[in-house]
């Protein structure tokens, strides 16, 4: 394999990395060996004054170390050796007697950015595709090829911690402001500018740099006492964010501290030791699996490989219902898929409100400088509205986001089918109603499909696509691709009440209600679950979803699955007191000017319960988690998801199931089916039939099976 090619211009060697047969450049042992042999040769070549390293991929510099290699690491020692090898290679670059310039276009991440850091000059393109950073902690590891040592020295302690501890990457302009790169240029002149920099450095030497930090940062970071303060604050922030469930950011913080306080050699030692320890943790394994599951889903069209389909290109979108969901679907589609979107509602004032909300999504991007003013104007012009379906004949896809009621949805389907072209697709955005029921009277059922978006649409990463029994393959592929164009991770799920996400969420939310009925304080429940790793607890989640929406969903689920999913009385009683949750600032929590404050103590009177003492967070966690796990096992056995991978991604991205646990199915594999069954049986005896273990779990116990075959 030859990953590198070298040409020469005016005494400057241009080394191009283009890993054969791979969509991205990544650094593995073979590439690093080849690189070292190459630069050794250039070291001794008197005709070479400097080196420019550039990528041969159209839109990728280097995506980091080869993550696939992490899955093959057999021991901590092996992982440590990998990091040590990376560090040595980067040190050789740094100490190379001739200047090395990195010419960066596209993602420059992890070990890719660590290589750039070791180079003597960094030029990046201003393309939005260029992003630079150290995302390692998102994989449960830390920058292991010198990044923890070099970045703080280059850009200052606080700025470096901001990147390393959150696993962030930055666009080129911000990277320039921070000092992560030295020059930002248009793509068309990247090569020339890098060559000029190499020439300059070869002639004038490597300039001394100081981190471009503010005076106040320099003052704080310049003294040991000031730095101690920074470390303490960073630690507190990490713990508040991770609840102590993710060891990597804390380890990275330690390494950065050691490198700055005791010197680079100690820093490198701490870095490879900690890298080794982290790389073999279950947390890292789960996060790495999630990375591969997500990338695999980017290519999965939701139909078996080899299916003969002609997907429809979606150029124009119609959205029926300009409420909260409809407007957000239109706004997100325009933002990410850049197509014309037309909102329809029954009256023009409603349409106007919806358009305003859709444009609000673009406004927010403009404010955060993710869009320029002219891009904003161009995108906003793609949005239009109507009260009478005018223009719908041009739509390739119509998404209905009206009231969650079967009769209403059927009526809308009939109205839309009368307007649209025969080849256009009708998608219904429902969270629980079976698609085949909505499609029952359709004229063209093969073009009807479910697209379950999660709220808030612009932020939630998941989309469930639900084909009904008569939906054709072209419609499935079109809906999946369109979902991806909207920026979503898409799972195709079976047409079963609640589909996947709401199916497994339903017993969990019901049980939270049962716990409240039993007198468990709301705070205790929510805190127990955030400590377990969920972003919010179930009561706070009910407030976010809206208690009216939650009640509707739980009724559908109860109707479909019977006693096991009997709702508690809590949601109904809250609604009797006009408590809809965040949307009317009345829920389990008090809302002050849109901000959630403490639990509203009045809810206990409303619910007729007295909060009691004596409950442990562990007992709460066990009841809530095991009901969700059991439901996931049941739904999996009914074929609701196509694979364990899809089920876990759905739970992680749709519910916020703790990523470090890998997902409900991965977690059951880790616990072992037998242990899950035993715990469920104990809960069954203590709390009732809803905890009866799913037959599939019993079967897996007997046969020693797992959800994941590996
Ligand atoms: C690291 O660097 C550790 C060091 O500090 C220390 C070492 C000692 N490895 O996402 P895409 C594959 S840790 C292996 O669809 P996009 C990906 O699986 C690393 N494979 O493209 C997919 O494969 P396939 C830190 C990788 O344009 C294909 O490339 N770096 C890697 O939407 C296309 O990927 C990261 O965490 C990799 N590093 O996005 C960055 N990267 O075709 C991880 C990609 O077989 N990568 N692949 O399905 C990314 O975030 C995105 O892939 C990227 C491109 C933004 C680069």
Gist of the model:
The protein is of the alpha/beta class and 710 residues long. The chain is built from 30 helices and 19 strands.
Write structural notes for this entry.
The protein has 710 residues and is an alpha/beta fold. The protein contains 30 helices and 19 strands. The strands form 4 sheets. It has an 8-stranded mixed beta sheet, with helices on both faces. A 6-stranded mixed beta sheet has the order 1-2-3-4-6-9, with helices on both faces. The protein has a 3-stranded mixed beta sheet with strand order 5-7-8. Helix 1 links the parallel strand 2 and strand 3. The protein is globular and about 80 Å long. The protein starts with a strand and ends in a 7-residue tail after the last helix.
Strand and helix layout:
Blueprint: E1 4-9, E2 12-17, H1 29-44, E3 50-55, H2 67-70, H3 76-94, E4 100-104, E5 108-109, H4 111-118, E6 121-125, E7 131-133, H5 147-155, H6 157-166, E8 169-171, H7 172-178, E9 183-185, H8 190-204, H9 215-221, H10 224-242, H11 247-262, H12 264-279, H13 282-297, E10 316-320, H14 324-337, E11 340-344, H15 348-367, H16 373-380, E12 383-386, E13 397-400, H17 406-419, E14 425-428, H18 435-439, E15 448-453, E16 462-467, H19 473-485, E17 489-492, H20 501-517, H21 522-532, H22 538-545, H23 547-561, H24 570-576, E18 589-592, E19 595-599, H25 602-607, H26 617-637, H27 644-655, H28 664-671, H29 673-687, H30 695-703
Parallel strand pairs: 2-3, 3-4, 4-6, 5-7, 6-9, 10-11, 10-13, 11-12, 13-14, 14-15, 16-17
Antiparallel strand pairs: 1-2, 7-8, 15-16, 18-19
The chain binds (S)-3-Hydroxyhexanoyl-CoA.
């Amino acid at each position: 394999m030859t990953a590198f090619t070298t040409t020469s211009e005016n005494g400057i060697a241009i080394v191009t990395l283009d890993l054969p047969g791979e969509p991205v450049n990544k650094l593995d042992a073979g590439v690093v060996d080849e690189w070292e042999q190459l630069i050794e040769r250039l070291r001794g070549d008197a005709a070479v004054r400097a080196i420019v390293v550039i990528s041969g991929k159209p839109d990728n510099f280097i995506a980091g170390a080869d993550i696939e290699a992490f899955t093959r690491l057999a021991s901590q020692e092996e992982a440590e050796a990998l990091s040590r090898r990376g560090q040595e290679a980067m040190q050789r670059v740094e100490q190379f007697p001739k200047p090395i310039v990195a010419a960066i276009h596209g993602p420059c991440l992890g070990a890719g950015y660590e290589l750039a850091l070791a180079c003597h000059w960094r030029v990046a393109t201003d393309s939005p595709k260029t992003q630079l950073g150290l995302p390692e902690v998102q994989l449960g590891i830390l920058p292991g090829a010198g990044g923890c040592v070099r970045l703080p020295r280059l850009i200052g302690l606080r700025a470096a911690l901001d990147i390393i501890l959150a696993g962030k990457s930055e666009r080129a302009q911000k990277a320039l402001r921070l000092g992560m790169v030295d020059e930002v240029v248009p793509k068309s002149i990247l090569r020339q500018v890098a060559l000029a920099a190499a020439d300059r450095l070869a002639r004038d030497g490597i300039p001394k740099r100081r981190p471009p930090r503010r005076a106040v940062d320099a003052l704080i970071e310049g003294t040991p006492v000031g730095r101690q303060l920074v470390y303490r604050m960073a630690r507190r922030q990490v713990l508040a964010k991770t609840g102590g469930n993710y060891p990597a950011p804390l380890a990275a913080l330690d390494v950065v501290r050691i490198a700055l306080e005791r010197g680079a050699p100690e820093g490198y030692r701490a870095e490879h030791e900690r890298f080794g320890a982290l790389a073999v943790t279950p947390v890292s394994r789960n996060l790495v699996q999630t990375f591969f599951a997500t990338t695999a889903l980017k290519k999965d069209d939701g139909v078996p490989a080899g299916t003969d389909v002609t997907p429809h290109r979606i150029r124009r979108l119609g959205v029926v219902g300009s409420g909260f969901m409809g407007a957000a679907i239109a706004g997100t589609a325009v933002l990410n898929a850049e197509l014309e979107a037309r909102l329809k509602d029954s009256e023009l004032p409603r349409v106007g409100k919806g358009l305003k909300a859709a444009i609000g999504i673009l406004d927010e991007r403009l404010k955060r400088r993710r869009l320029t003013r002219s891009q904003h104007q161009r995108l906003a012009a793609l949005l239009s509205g109507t009260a009478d379906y005018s223009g719908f004949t041009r739509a390739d896809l119509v998404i209905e986001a009206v009231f969650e009621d079967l009769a209403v949805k059927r009526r809308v389907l009939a109205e839309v089918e009368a307007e649209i072209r025969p080849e256009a697709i009708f998608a219904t955005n429902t969270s629980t109603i079976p698609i085949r029921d909505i499609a029952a009277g359709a004229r063209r059922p093969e073009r009807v499909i479910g697209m379950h978006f999660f709220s808030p649409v612009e932020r939630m990463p998941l989309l469930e696509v639900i084909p009904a029994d008569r939906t054709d393959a072209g419609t499935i592929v079109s809906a999946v691709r369109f979902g991806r164009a909207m920026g979503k991770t898409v799972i195709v799920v079976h047409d079963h009440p609640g589909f996947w996400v709401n199916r497994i969420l339903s017993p969990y939310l019901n049980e939270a209600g049962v716990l409240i009925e039993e007198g468990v304080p709301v705070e205790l429940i929510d805190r127990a679950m955030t400590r377990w790793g969920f972003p919010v607890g179930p009561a706070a989640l009910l407030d976010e979803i809206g208690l009216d929406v939650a009640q509707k969903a739980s009724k559908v689920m109860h109707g479909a699955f019977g006693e096991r999913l009997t709702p508690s009385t809590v949601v109904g009683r809250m609604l009797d007191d006009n408590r809809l949750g965040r949307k009317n600032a009345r829920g389990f929590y008090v809302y002050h000017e849109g901000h959630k404050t403490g639990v509203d103590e009045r809810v206990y009177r409303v619910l007729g319960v007295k909060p009691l003492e004596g409950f442990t967070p562990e007992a709460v966690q066990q009841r809530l988690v095991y009901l969700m796990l059991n439901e996931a096992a049941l739904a999996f056995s009914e074929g609701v998801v196509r694979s364990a991978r899809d089920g876990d991604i759905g739970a992680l991205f749709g519910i916020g199931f703790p990523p470090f646990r890998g997902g409900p199915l991965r977690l059951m594999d880790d616990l072992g089916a037998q242990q899950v069954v035993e715990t469920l049986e104990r809960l069954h005896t203590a709390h009732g039939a809803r905890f009866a273990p799913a037959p599939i779990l019993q079967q897996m116990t007997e046969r020693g099976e797992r959800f994941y075959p590996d």
